[in-house]
Structures are given as structure tokens and as C-alpha cells.
Specification:
Helix content is 0%, strand content 0%. The protein contains no helices and no strands. The model has no long low-confidence stretch (mean pLDDT 61).
Length: 16
């Protein structure tokens, strides 16, 4: 689990 962006999945390319 990466709290990089506000997403629930790590499939996100860039944090909006």
C-alpha cells in the first residue's frame, strides 16, 4: 500500500 496519491490502487500513473 503506497500512500502516494489519493487512490486506493497502485495502478495510478501519477498523483493528481
Amino acid at each position: 500500500m503506497n500512500a502516494r496519491s489519493g487512490s486506493s490502487t497502485i495502478g495510478e500513473s501519477v498523483p493528481s
